[in-house]
């Protein structure tokens, strides 16, 4: 009986059912779950590049973006594209990597700075000797640095100016400032002049830049300014203004340069958009001799002023919510204590205030007000160098100029250095 039961359990055909129907049942037996292939097809549905870009833009650090982009070729292509880079750079400031001395010597920031590894990578990859520029490299002197670009000039008897990208070894020689109102700026009798890198033009490519040259013609007591645009390749000048003593120029904010008179009573403001000079009173905290002043962009259109009186152990911070008007618009914001009275200002940049104390260089973050030692030795008249280290996020900051390497070679070098495990990002 047991054998019969087993035989009965193994019986698969019913003589009452048509054999053709049984064969169809065997070929199309029902499945309770979808096939494994079905799950794979659903999981591989493509995510639009626009959505991937939005996700990447919300990653907290540049290092996270680089590591994530290494997951697949399509991610790398997206991150390396100019549309993504343009948006990324508007949301993320490039890190402070170090300081440039007048001669071009590069002093990278040191641990425990979070940018220390990136600074080391740039120190190895960039050419801060400027050997790719024409003429003896020693003739070029650093005047300013901004946005990964460096402004250089030659000796006092040669008013040549150049803007270069040391990381990608590109440069552009600027034309001489034209003769204006009988003044020949490239003559031997050149007045005292200071030159700076300005903001990129909003409507132009991200590789565009401006250069501002402010001159003081001492024997005629005149001030004048000239602005070079990389988009037009031309200089334009302000009308000369007379009747002012010499001014000491400081960093600019929101397209305006601020200078302080020798008697420390007035601010002379140069609006590089309108190409106009204007005068404003200094706030009481900033008036008088032996007072250090630094102007910064505080965000949301607010101009910030840091004031450090000689021999004091605190910094006063004031703000102004628009670019015009008088001293009544400067509002006291806060006091920032220092550990000693041996600090003095060295300058300022987009995000940091520079100070020196007993030979060491410090930065003060203008948003968090945190003081950090970044270099263990003093640097004479340093320029802050900020940029993204060699990676997919790093691209040339100068175009339409002279490229000392073939574009294909540059691209290979950039991609090769952009491994998610390459140095430069923590």
From TrEMBL:
Q: Domain F-box protein AT5G49610-like beta-propeller spans what residues?
A: 142-344
Q: Which InterPro entries match?
A: AT5G49610-like_b-prop, F-box-like_dom_sf
Transmembrane segments in this chain: where?
A: none
Pfam families noted in UniProt: Beta-prop_AT5G49610-like
Region annotation (Disordered) maps to 1-36
This chain belongs to the protein called F-box protein AT5G49610-like beta-propeller domain-containing protein
